[in-house]
Backbone:
């Protein structure tokens, strides 16, 4: 008998694996609507949708293994990281999805409130928060929207050897900042940024990618703590912020 494995679970959603089938349970139907439509539109490999009965979405496992895990060294080859960069470029060059992502002003408002919470609760040293907030502001700029994954982290990118085999978890896909995808992919794995950029195939603003590392980390801390995750684990969000000092 195949076992049921809990991949991730918190108050908003849960993902279970049974054999080669993933069952995604999401309280917000809109996220699942986005995920299904985005996978249909994306020009890169995505999981096959097996069936859907809200709030459950069943998708097939993709071959290969994740590019890595935040907080642990990646065993993937430089070519595999470059393949992830090439996939991001192909996605960003695709026609835009019909729905828009978050506005810059809304992200700026979240940055202000999250930094205020971090300071009020003494979660991190004041100078660390102030420094990273200043860096993060470079990401709050005008840009040309692209088709973005929205949560292009290494656990969502699967490879087999040097080849990309699939990208999962598309619920945050939208029109958005392409450099956010590249920054999310390399968060905590800055040593692979050059490989990703080489695969991406065009010049990128490295200062903006660094800004997104700070911004994403500052915005994530409270959510992670409140949902039972530890941003202070080695190589995770706290270390990303400290590296900016």
Residues:
């Amino acid at each position: 008998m195949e076992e049921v494995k809990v991949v991730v679970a918190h108050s908003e959603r849960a993902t279970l694996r049974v054999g080669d089938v993933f069952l995604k349970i999401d309280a917000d139907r809109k996220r699942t609507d986005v995920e299904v439509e985005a996978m249909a539109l994306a020009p890169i490999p995505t999981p096959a949708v097996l069936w859907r009965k809200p709030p459950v979405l069943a998708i097939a496992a993709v071959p290969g293994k994740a590019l890595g895990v935040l907080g642990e060294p990646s065993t993937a080859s430089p070519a595999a990281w470059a393949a992830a960069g090439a996939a991001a470029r192909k996605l960003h060059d695709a026609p835009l999805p019909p729905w828009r992502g978050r506005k810059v002003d809304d992200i700026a408002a979240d940055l202000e409130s999250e930094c205020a919470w971090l300071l009020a609760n003494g979660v991190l040293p004041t100078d660390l928060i102030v420094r990273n907030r200043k860096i993060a502001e470079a990401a709050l700029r005008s840009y040309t929207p692209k088709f973005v994954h929205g949560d292009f982290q290494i656990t969502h990118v699967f490879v087999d050897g040097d080849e990309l085999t699939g990208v999962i978890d598309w619920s945050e896909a939208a029109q958005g900042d392409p450099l956010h995808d590249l920054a999310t992919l390399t968060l905590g794995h800055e040593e692979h940024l050059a490989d990703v950029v080489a695969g991406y195939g065009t010049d990128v603003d490295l200062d903006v990618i660094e800004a997104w590392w700070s911004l994403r980390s500052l915005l994530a801390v409270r959510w992670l703590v409140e949902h039972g995750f530890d941003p202070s684990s080695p190589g995770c969000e706290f270390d990303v912020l400290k590296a900016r000092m």
In short: The chain has a mean pLDDT of 96.
